[in-house]
Amino acid sequence: MILNLPFIAVAVLLLIGFYGLLFKDNLIKITMSVVIIEGAVNLFLVSLGYVEGAVPPVYTMAPFEEPMAFAVPQALVITAIVIGIAVTTLMLALSVRIYQTYGTLDTKEVRRLRG
Amino acid sequence: MIEFIQKLPLIAILLPLIAGLATILIGKYSEKIRNIWVSSILGITLLVIVAILFEVIRNGLITYTLGAPQTTPEAWDVPVRIILEVDAMGAFIALGIGLTTFLASLYSWRFFDEDRLGMNTYYALLMITAAGGAGFAYTGDLFNLFVFLEITSISAAGLVAFWSKKGTPYEASFKFLVISAVSAMMFLMGVGFIYGQYNALNIGMVAERMMETGFGTLDQLALGLFVASLAMKAGAVPMHMWIPDAYGETPAPISMVMVTISQLSLYGLFRVSFSLYGFNLDGVALGWIIVILGLLTMFIGVMMAIIQKTIKRLMAYHAISQTGYMLLGVGVGLVALMSGDAGSIPIYGQQAMEGGIFHILNHAIYKGLLFLTAGAVIYKTNVRSLDDLGSLAREMPFTTVAFVVGAAAIAGLPPFNGFASKIIIYQSAYILNPFLTAVAMLVSVLTLASFVKVFQSVFLGPKKEEIEGIGEVPPSMKAAMFGLASLTILFGLFPDLVVETIVVPAAEALIDQQGYIGGIL
User: Fold this and answer.
1) Residue of B184, B190, B267, B179 whose CA lies nearest to B221
2) pLDDT over threshold 90, residue B459
3) Which are the contacts of B87, defined by CB distance < 8 A and separation ≥ 6?
4) B-interface mutation test, from A51, A94, A107, A114, most B Cβ less than 10 A away
5) How many CB pairs under 8 A join A and B?
6) Which of A19-33, B403-417, B466-480 has the lowest mean pLDDT?
7) Is the confidence at residue A16, as pLDDT, over 50?
8) Which of A45, A82, B53, B491 is 20 to 30 Å from B304 by CA-CA measure?
9) Are A77 and A54 in contact, with CB atoms under 8 Å apart?
10) What residues in A contact B309, CB-CB < 8 Å?
11) Which residue intervals of B382-433 are DSSP H helices?
């Protein structure tokens, strides 16, 4: 039962993220929604590798009787987090530039590209 | 010597990546040396990519293992290694990104004459895009597909935003970044589903284990995530809204590179449907979904293109429309493959796939040519609106001829390369259902109409005072256009040669799922 909790959290986070992405008008809030979606996916990957009562997957301190958590999802998540930071930084930098040229962050007004 | 050939895929990724970072340092010293450095490195990368293609066609799959020895320890049933697995399809698709980044670097020598701010980072990002694209084409690992997808999209987003005077490129880049970040996250979610079930990330390994256990609900969920995210990145209707903004607002050489970046996502879609799922799918539903996506994409794209008023936005909508042909060709192939006996494919299915894959390369060439001619017009006149241009044929004869070649190719007129691949798609789709061919031909006619309009309003018309004496573009830009125009004509005159040497092996590699699985063992 308790093992399912992370997956429920993933679903809730995804819902919040997509809600923000679709219904919010502020570019900063859209950036936050993307970050929340990233967090949900990363949590999903980490939860996949969890084994109940397991020790951290560090080879040198592994006791051979006890189970270890899966190492691969954790390695994946590290990479995904780094990529996520790059994306967030670039989005925030673009928001700054958009604010400088348009004078607003509202997506209803940042709409010079049409048709 | 054989060992060196095995390492070539790694070189194609690492060379532009490391050289790209060094570019910033070299650029601080001298601009001229930097330009030569960038073009020669990207030229070498293109040569390496071509060498890999011919090596793969001659001797079969190249598998390169990163970090761990080739053989796995006996006691472990999980191969702990990251692999690059290059089959003919992967080697083929890398050709587009290699060619366009090389020509973009040549074209950029003079294109940004007016303001040279940030050119060092521009070239660095261009080379990192090339590295990411080559990595995406060569990797045999699901998670690395995600990583390289993100590397190409982040660097491409930087390139879209970089040349901005009035702020609209920032808006386009933000849109592109949101779309690619969310779709990449959905892709990663699908990778999570697959990993949780099969405890492997190698595409071949997963495919093999899926064959043993059968196709389950979670696989279906993962497939949905993969198809949706990759189709969104490839710009298929109804997820196409970012394409006209991103293609239209970037500098012209980057528009050309963006076309091949979208094609990489298309390749990812084909890789997932054929090599990962393949015969596990047991049904023609996915094939028909791709065919219908293709029809919608080509029709809506061309209809939107007809009403456009700025030159590059119009071409961007045509790029969407042409993506539909590739989806149609490969979708017809997938339907045929699934409806026949396992392992055999009706002849029209094979031909449809050849047409679709050939069209990928042709599209990269003639679309790149068209974007470069649009860039030449904007470079000389600094006008984007079709209504304000005119009579440029008097001033820029070379650009005019290049434009006519590209426009004839995209409309599918013989003897240019667009005709060569479209006729294969028409013939083979007709056998599956005549309606498909009817729509495809109608779209070609509409494309021709739209480009006749562009030709008339940009290059013909009475003499205009404000453009008198602007002259022709510099030689480096001419060279890039000449390269693409001559490829357009050559591929149109000798289509058999190209199809036999590189397209048929690519199509066969895509169909041959067992061969792909065999490559990792």
Assistant:
1) B190
2) no
3) B56, B61, B509, B510, B515, B516, B519
4) A94
5) 92
6) B466-480
7) yes
8) B491
9) no
10) 115
11) 392-395, 397-410, 417-432
Instruction: Return the closest-CA partner of residue B298 out of B359, B246, B339.
Output: B359
Query: From the candidates A90, A95, A100, A107, which should be mutated to test the interface with B, based on the most B CB atoms within 10 A?
Result: A90
Q: What letter does residue B141 receive in the DSSP assignment?
A: B
Distance CA A88, CA B294 (A): 33
**pLDDT level of residue B310 (50, 70, 90 thresholds):** confident
Residue B191: the pLDDT is 93
Cα–Cα distance between A88 and A92 in angstroms, integer? 6
pLDDT of residue A102: 86
d(CA B222, CA B216): 10
Q: What is the least distance, in Å, from the CA of B181 to any CA of chain A?
A: 7
- Lowest-confidence region among B135-139, B208-212, B292-296: B208-212
Is the minimum CB–CB distance between B32 and chain A shorter than 8 Å? no
Domain ranges within chain B, ordered by starting residue: 282-521
A→B contacts (Cβ < 8 Å), by residue, are: 21, 27, 30, 34, 37-38, 41, 44-45, 48, 72-73, 76, 79-80, 83, 86-87, 90-91, 94-95, 97-98, 100-102, 110-113, 115
Residue B75 has pLDDT above 60, yes or no: no
What ipTM was predicted for this assembly? 0.93
* Whole-angstrom distance, CA of residue A68 vs CA of residue A91: 37
B 130-159 → A contacts, CB under 8 A: 143, 146-147, 150, 154, 157-158
